[in-house]
Amino acid sequence: MKNKFKWSMVSIAIVASALTVVSTLKQNAEEYELKKSKAEDPNNYEIDHFKQVEKLTEEEMEEQTSEIGGVQNELGISSNSAQDEVIEVMHHMTHQKVISEDKWGAVEMNSENINAVYEIVKDSDFMLKDDLLRIVTGWKEGSFDNVAQDHNYFWKYQDGTVGRATGILNSNEEAEFVKNNF
Predict the structure, then answer these.
(1) Contact partners, residue 59, CB within 8 Å, separation at least 6
(2) According to the model, what pLDDT value does residue 126 have?
(3) 70: pLDDT strictly greater than 50
(4) pLDDT value at 125 more than 90
(5) Which is it for the CA torsion 45, 64, 93, 68, positive or negative?
(6) Element (DSSP H or E) covering residue 168
(7) Residue 29 pLDDT more than 80?
(8) Distance between CA atoms of 88 and 82, rounded to whole angstroms?
(9) 67: closest CA among 182, 169, 176, 180?
(10) CA dihedral 25, 22, 75, 175 (to 10 degrees)
(11) What is the rounded CA–CA span in Å between residue 49 and residue 124?
(12) CA terminus-to-terminus distance, the chain
C-alpha cells in the first residue's frame, strides 16, 4: 500500500512538471512568433503613421473619454510579476491616450506609474524586455508620439480582436478621460 501511494505521488509530480514545461514552451513559442513576425514585417502590428485627430465630434469625444470598466487605482505589479502581467498594465496605461473602438481597463499613465514599470522592466529577464524597455523609456522621456503603435503592440500580443488604436487623443480629450476615470 505504501509503495502504491509513493508511486502515485511520484506520478503526480511528473505530470505537474510536464505541464509546467509544456506551458513554458507554449509561452516561449508565442513570444518567438511575435518577435519573428515583427522582424519580418515591422508594420504588421502597428500603423505606419498616426495623425492626432484634429477634433473629435462631440459624440466621439464622449465615447473616447467616458468612464470605462476595469479601471485600476493601483499599479498591481511588482518585480516578481510575470511578463504578461506587465504587458497588461502597460496596455491599460495606453488607454488614457489613444482612440480606439473599445477600451477595457485603465491604469493612470503618470510619472510614478511609468517609473515603477520602467524599474520592473529594466530589472527583468523578460523575453520581450528590449521592446518593453524601448516603449517605457519613451514614456519616461515624455514621448507619446508612438503611443497608438505601443497600444497595438500590446493589443496584438494579447490576441486582440476589437479595440485596435486608430489615433491619439489631444490634451483636452486626455484630460477629460483622466477626470472621468481616475
Answers:
(1) none
(2) 97
(3) yes
(4) yes
(5) negative
(6) strand 165-168
(7) no
(8) 10
(9) 180
(10) 60
(11) 30
(12) 60
The whole-model pTM stands at: 0.72
What the block records as the C-alpha cell of 111 is 510619472
Residue with cell 482612440: 99
Domain boundary assignment for the chain: 1-44, 49-181
User: Could you tell me if 38 and 45 are in contact, meaning their C-beta atoms sit under 8 angstroms apart?
Assistant: yes
Q: What is the pLDDT of residues 32-69, one digit of tens each?
A: 666 655 545 444 444 444 545 446 788 877 888 888 88
Q: Where are the alpha helices (DSSP H) in 68-128?
A: 83-94, 111-122
Closest CA to 83 of 20, 152, 131: 131
Reported as a pLDDT band with limits 50, 70 and 90, residue 3 is confident
CB 105 within 8 A of CB 95: yes
What are the E-state strand segments in 55-116? 71-72, 98-100, 106-107
9 against 96, higher pLDDT: 96
Q: What are the grid coordinates assigned to 164, written together? A: 485596435
> What region does 142 belong to: left with phi over 0, alpha with psi -120 to 50, or beta?
left
How far apart are alpha carbons 89 and 22 in whole angstroms?
Answer: 26
Burial of 68 (0-12, 13-18, 19+ CB in 10 A): middle
Give the residues across from 168 on adjacent strands. Answer: 52, 98
